[in-house]
TrEMBL record:
<dbReference type="InterPro" id="IPR040622">
    <property type="entry name" value="EGF_integrin_1"/>
</dbReference>
<dbReference type="InterPro" id="IPR015812">
    <property type="entry name" value="Integrin_bsu"/>
</dbReference>
<dbReference type="Pfam" id="PF07974">
    <property type="entry name" value="EGF_2"/>
</dbReference>
<dbReference type="GO" id="GO:0009986">
    <property type="term" value="C:cell surface"/>
</dbReference>
<feature type="disulfide bond">
    <location>
        <begin position="610"/>
        <end position="615"/>
    </location>
</feature>
<keyword id="KW-1133">Transmembrane helix</keyword>
<feature type="disulfide bond">
    <location>
        <begin position="573"/>
        <end position="604"/>
    </location>
</feature>
<dbReference type="Pfam" id="PF18372">
    <property type="entry name" value="I-EGF_1"/>
</dbReference>
<keyword id="KW-0460">Magnesium</keyword>
<keyword id="KW-1003">Cell membrane</keyword>
<feature type="disulfide bond">
    <location>
        <begin position="530"/>
        <end position="565"/>
    </location>
</feature>
<feature type="signal peptide">
    <location>
        <begin position="1"/>
        <end position="18"/>
    </location>
</feature>
<dbReference type="GO" id="GO:0019901">
    <property type="term" value="F:protein kinase binding"/>
</dbReference>
<feature type="disulfide bond">
    <location>
        <begin position="397"/>
        <end position="411"/>
    </location>
</feature>
<keyword id="KW-0597">Phosphoprotein</keyword>
<dbReference type="InterPro" id="IPR014836">
    <property type="entry name" value="Integrin_bsu_cyt_dom"/>
</dbReference>
<feature type="disulfide bond">
    <location>
        <begin position="474"/>
        <end position="486"/>
    </location>
</feature>
Length: 796
């Protein structure tokens, strides 16, 4: 065959295929019947052995059914399987009145209950689901109340709730049970005060309150309303420090502790009453609680015992557990917190929010209204779908209302006894990798009833089962004659398996120029001449196409800093070949790890990997150039204290769970503190720790974390406990001290008096010396001698 004939044939072939570009059956390029029927619902496979014309490939047997008939294939020889369905369990929905008493398990609200569906790729299978809101359907209601001090007046009104609510709910159902639980907060700082006095009475002033607690199951679900009033009447208000409460801990326990609460497989209502916000996952760190909530029941004697150990649950975790246990939640909250709980309601399916009065006087009306709101709307949800499977809903509701799309899952304004219908369509786009059946469940949230749908997949044609292995029709046994065509053995190709892959790579004339069985000739970058690609030339002679299919070039590689391969490599076949010490798609990363070495010689302190010369810490809590900082981490000693304590001394908080939680510890005891290993400049850093136990004894240990995450611990075998005080020396010391202090005070007083007297005497002497006396006669001086003269004496 000369070159012109090849080019003409190529042109005709390309023209014909281009006209069928939108045909999914042809585009699938199916080699056998199973591949064909998975390409689309309209695809069929012609099993007529004489169907193909000269030059046509095996994939030409796969086409739309109408096209195959037009091309001459008899309809009876076209393999075109269709899906099907069977109803395996179909108990009618219950029709009854209140005068007909039935057990909960005898009531059916959803029909059918189980189906078996066989799916073909691209072909939807539809079925109808009927839902009827049953008359006199049993209800379990659990009242969960915030007992912090601000709810004091509310508790008084709730004390008479049991009989009043029972009376009101008898208008809806004759089978009603009620339970009660209360919550406050985690019993650790800073949520409550841990002083002994506050632990006994957390309220201020002359108010008497009960000790704080996390959650308490006061009354298991019961039909005795008087018992509810009695037990609730015995409850007392408690108190805490912060405004948000620990209600999420309580909701989690109510959801997962089914046996202790007493839930039945009926309508389950949880009334959550509070006048405050809520703590959620992550808030526990304020109290040093970092373990995520495990979503398991931890009630002992009806009290939640692990509030100090596990963090609050997340909203998503609560949604999962409430959904798994078919619980519908009613948030009865004060007007102040309405916006917060409205947002929470949007995240929790099948929940409602009611405005609680300041003293909970309207709680009965709130519960009844919320229940009517929840039960008047049905929304279908399905379990996780297998890969490639989609599901669509169309709701036929009351008064001829039809909802489609996302609203097709929902019907509203459903009264007791109303019946609605959903049309459900399931479609598979491909066969599962294992080809095994899959199961999905469809149910209304908050209901224990569901429809089980078993999905089977058509992955091959029926004619494949009657194939003839090593058929003489297939080049003397080089393949299996299956569905009218040869399915070649490994290494053989061609319509009749007549060619070896070592000689010819493809089934059609131009296949040698098509890469990976594609449609592009020479990757649209060249021409196919005699089965060989000749690549185009570009204006820039430095830019060239290359490769067997012209699929490679040296100019379409990734760039970094506007440079091809970052200037640190060369472009080969659209991939960068980097120079030494560089890596990355664009050779943008340096492999020099010296910038990642920490002071201890470890790369990124063993907490990350060195990428492009920069440390990428494996955990976001580590920071710094070499992952050396951890602002949110507790001290390494505190972090490992409990495990060391339980392993070495069989004491501490983890003594009961030591073997489960404290693995990868290599512990060695030493007799003296001097023998504890000291920190060195060795590659593995070592911490020296001194921790106190519950007996106020100090225990010493060193800790080194090895590369395999094993903790090497050396611990002093005997804790150092403080000796008790010796009373006699203390008393003697106090007496001697008092005497010595008294003598010292007397000595000081005497010394001060001597100093004062000497100063006064010196002052007197000085004034005496400076005094000046007048020598004249004192005018007031009178002599002690009196002289008398006789006036008659004449001196004779």
């Amino acid at each position: 065959m000369d070159l012109r004939l090849i080019l003409i044939t190529f042109g005709l072939f390309f023209c014909c295929h281009a006209s069928k570009e939108g045909n999914e059956c042809i585009n699938a390029n199916a080699k056998y019947c199973g591949e064909c029927i998975q390409a689309g619902a309209k695809c069929g496979w012609c099993t007529d052995p004489n169907f193909l014309k000269q030059g046509e490939t095996v994939s030409s047997r796969c086409d739309e059914v109408e096209s195959l008939i037009k091309r001459g294939c008899n309809l009876t020889l076209i393999e075109n399987p269709v899906g099907k369905q069977r109803v395996l369990k179909n108990i009618p929905v219950t029709n009854r009145g209140k005068n007909k008493k039935l057990k909960p398990e005898e009531i059916t609200q959803i029909q059918p209950q189980k189906l078996d569906i066989t799916l073909r790729s691209g072909e939807p299978q539809s079925f109808n689901l009927t839902f009827k809101r049953a008359e006199d359907y049993p209800i379990d209601l659990y009242y969960l109340m915030d007992l912090s001090y601000s709810m004091k007046d509310d508790l008084e009104n709730v004390k008479n709730l049991g009989t009043s609510l029972m009376l009101e709910m008898t208008k809806i159902t004759s089978d009603f049970r009620i339970g009660f639980g209360s919550f406050v907060e985690k019993t650790v700082m800073p949520y409550i005060s841990t002083t002994p006095a506050k632990l006994l009475n957390p309220c201020t002033g002359d108010q008497t309150c009960t000790s704080p607690f996390s959650y308490k199951n006061v009354l298991k679900l019961t039909s005795n309303g008087s018992l509810f009033n009695t037990l609730v009447g015995q409850q007392h208000i408690s108190g805490n420090l912060d405004s948000p409460e620990g209600g999420f801990d309580a909701i989690m326990q109510v959801a997962v502790c089914g046996d202790q609460i007493g839930w039945r497989n009926v309508t389950r209502l949880l009334v959550f009453s509070t006048d405050a916000g809520f703590h959620f996952a992550g808030d526990g760190k304020l109290g040093g609680i970092v373990l995520p909530n495990d979503g398991k029941c931890h009630l002992e004697n009806n009290i939640y015992t692990m509030s100090h150990y596990y963090d609050y649950p997340s909203i998503a975790h609560l949604v999962q557990k409430l959904s798994d246990n078919n619980i519908q939640t009613i948030f009865a909250v004060t007007e102040e917190f309405q916006p917060v709980y409205q947002e929470l309601k949007n995240l929790i399916p099948k929940s409602a929010v009611g405005t609680l009065s300041a003293n909970s006087s309207n709680v009965i009306n709130l519960i009844v209204d919320a229940y009517n709101s929840l039960s008047s709307e049905v929304i279908l949800e399905n379990s996780k779908l297998p890969d490639g499977v989609t599901i669509a809903y169309t709701a036929h509701c009351k008064d001829g209302v039809v909802n489609e799309g996302e609203n097709g899952r929902k019907c509203s304004n459903i009264s007791i006894g109303d019946e609605v219908e959903f049309e459900i369509s399931v479609t598979s786009q491909k066969c599962p990798s294992n080809g095994k059946p899959e199961t999905i469940n469809i149910k209304p949230p908050g209901s224990s009833e569901f429809v089980e749908v078993v999905l089977n997949f058509i992955c091959d044609c029926d004619c494949a089962a009657t194939g003839v292995p090593n058929s003489p029709e297939c080049n003397k046994g080089s393949g299996t004659l299956e569905c009218g065509a040869c399915k070649c053995n490994e290494g053989q190709i061609g319509q009749f398996c007549e060619c070896s892959q070592d000689e010819v790579q493809t089934n059609d004339m131009d296949a040698n120029c098509r890469k990976d069985n594609g449609t592009d000739i020479c990757s649209n970058n060249g021409e196919c001449v005699c089965g060989t690609c000749i690549c185009k030339k570009r204006e820039n002679p430095a830019e060239v196409y290359s490769g067997k299919y012209c699929d490679c070039d040296n100019f379409n590689c990734d760039r970094s800093n506007n440079k091809l391969c970052g200037g640190h490599g060369r472009c080969e076949c659209r991939k960068c070949i980097c120079d030494a010490n560089y890596t990355g798609n664009a050779c943008e990363c340096s492999m020099d790890s010296s910038t990642c070495l920490a002071k201890n010689g470890q790369e990124c302190n063993g907490r990350g990997k060195c990428e492009c010369g920069v440390c990428k810490c494996s955990d976001s809590k580590f920071q710094g150039p070499t992952c050396e900082l951890c602002p949110t981490c507790p001290g390494v000693c505190t972090e490992h204290k409990d495990c060391v304590q339980c392993l070495a001394f069989k004491t501490g908080e983890k003594k009961d769970t030591c073997h489960q939680e404290c693995t990868k510890y290599k512990l060695e005891k030493v007799t003296e503190r001097e023998r504890l290993p000291q920190p060195t400049d060795e590659p593995i850093p070592r911490a020296i720790c001194k921790e106190r136990d519950e007996n106020d004894c100090w225990f010493y240990f060193t800790l080194a974390v090895q590369e395999d995450d094993t903790k090497q611990v050396h611990v002093l075998e005997k804790p150092e406990c403080p000796a008790g005080p010796d009373i006699v020396p203390i008393v003697i010391g106090v007496v001697v001290g008092i005497v010595l202090i008294g003598l010292a005070l007397l000595f000081i007083w005497k010394l001060l008096m001597i100093i004062h007297d000497r100063r006064e005497f010196a002052k007197f002497e000085k004034e005496k010396m400076n005094a000046k006396w007048d020598t004249g006669e004192n005018p007031i001086y009178k002599s002690a001698v009196t002289t008398v003269v006789n006036p008659k004496y004449e001196g004779k």
